Amino acid sequence: MRAGMRAETLEAGAVEGGSVPSGGDGTPVRATGPALTVLLGLSLSHLLNDLVQSLLPAIYPLLKQSFHLDFGQIGLLTLAFQATASLLQPAIGLSTDRNPMPFSLAAGMAVSLVGLGLLSLAPTYAVLLAAAALIGLGSAIFHPEASRVARLASGGRYGLAQSVFQVGGNAGTALGPLLAAFVVVPHGQGSVAWFGLAALSGIAVLSAVGRWYAGRLAAAPRTPRVTVGSDAAGLTRARIVATVAILLALIFSKFFYTASFSSYYTFYLIHRFGVPVAQSQLYLFVFLGSVAAGTLLGGPIGDRFGRKLVIWVSILGVLPFTLALPHVNLFWTVALSVPIGLILASAMPAILVYAQDLLPGRVGLVGGLFFGFAFGMGGLGAALLGELADRIGIEQVYALCAYLPLIGLLAVMLPRLR
Q1: Cα separation, 312 vs 9, whole angstroms
Q2: Which of 29, 208, 218, 324 would staple 22 via disulfide (CB 3.0–4.6 Å)?
Q3: Domains of the chain and CATH, by start
Q4: Integer Cα distance of 174 and 286 in angstroms
């Protein structure tokens, strides 16, 4: 419990303008800027974590052929992965809020390493399920505590810190399928073991980050627990709950629409415009690159102009582009994918920092809840949109998804935080 109080003291000090404890005497001093080495280490480890995480669905066609799986069994693999990666994150975040565990970051990557080992050697479908669950569990352990460390390393520039942290995950998600195509598909299931090098690198980086985090916890003064909600945000508990629900609805609109691109954009381009598979992958990387750029820009812009404005513009502002996309030619489809990815992705860092300000002392819970919900919505969106595409066609799916950003109108109900 004392560790939890010290972590909350660090967070509370950051809320009050970027001040941090200077040593054992507890005298606070103003931070001079972000701890960039720590932030870059977190971003790199996020890249490695999400690279490993994205490897599993990338090799589904190989596993389907090798183990003679039907689509129902593929769906159970996804369920095993998402049940641990999404559903456990809030519980893990709440636990680490109470008892911070600096070296849980490296431990989470170690769990993913075990999952990779099982995946590379799995002789049966049951072992594949266990491997999927372990990779998801490693991701669930990583995200909440990593989000807290990013805030502590921000020097008061919370949006910038979250953007640097999250853009690593975007890069890892993009690289996973690409590396799977060049390494696993030509060389078979056993070559998955080579990705253990990525997990080992992540363990090394996160061990160093954990030592930095442990030092900050040891230096923090021991003070009473921070009151959640009203003191920092000036809101009643009911208003806080309603605001969290609005933020989750915005996450739903963002990641459901993003799922239409990440899972089906290549099929859309091939079906509508007849482009070759390789060319469609290139256009997908154009979109993913714009997502990475939007993630990197969204946090600093929020630091400068305010979270609520960025949330409002980034989600609702994309509507004209999404409405136009189903009705234009190939050139303009690719061109419109750039502002769509750029504007839509800028929301996530702003939403996360806004929620952290809304719930001071609950950074782990916020990270677990929002990352878990975002990941779950992406997976659910991919599944439901796939079923819908089978029934009405992929082009109609994009025409319907174009209206999802209208949910961004809820942003007008977000309170202005002190």
Answers
A1: 31
A2: 29
A3: 1-223 (1.20.1250.20), 229-418 (1.20.1250.20)
A4: 11
Contact in structure between 25 and 219 (CB atoms under 8 Å): no
Q: What are the tokens at 24? A: 């054992």
Of 143, 52, 155, the C-alpha closest to 96 is: 143
Q: What is the pLDDT of residue 20?
A: 39
Residue 252 banded pLDDT, cuts 50, 70, 90? confident
Q: Copy the structure tokens of residue 268.
A: 């859309």
Q: How much is the average pLDDT of 41-49? A: 92
What are the structure tokens assigned to 126, written together? 């049951």
- Residue 400: CB atoms within 10 A of its CB come to 13
Q: How far is CA 170 from CA 293, 332, 345, in A?
A: 9, 24, 10
Query: Torsions phi, psi of 250, nearest 5?
Result: -65, -40
d(CA 261, CA 199): 27
Q: Count CA atoms closer than 13 A to 55's CA, side-chain side.
A: 34
Q: What is the mean pLDDT of residues 369-390?
A: 75
End-to-end CA distance of the chain: 28
DSSP letters, 41-76, are: HHHHHHHHHHHHHHHHHHTHHHHHHHHT--HHHHHH
- Average pLDDT, rounded, for the chain: 80
Instruction: For residue 183, give the DSSP letter.
Output: I
Check residue 392 and give its pLDDT: 85
Q: What are the structure tokens assigned to 10, written together? A: 């660090």
Helices within 59-124 (DSSP H only): 60-67, 71-85, 88-98, 104-121
Mean pLDDT of 269-290: 82
Tokens of 54: 């994205």
CA–CA gap between residue 242 and residue 250 (Å, rounded): 13
Neighbours of 203 (CB within 10 A): 20
SS (H, E, C) 354-367: HHHHHCCCCHHHHH
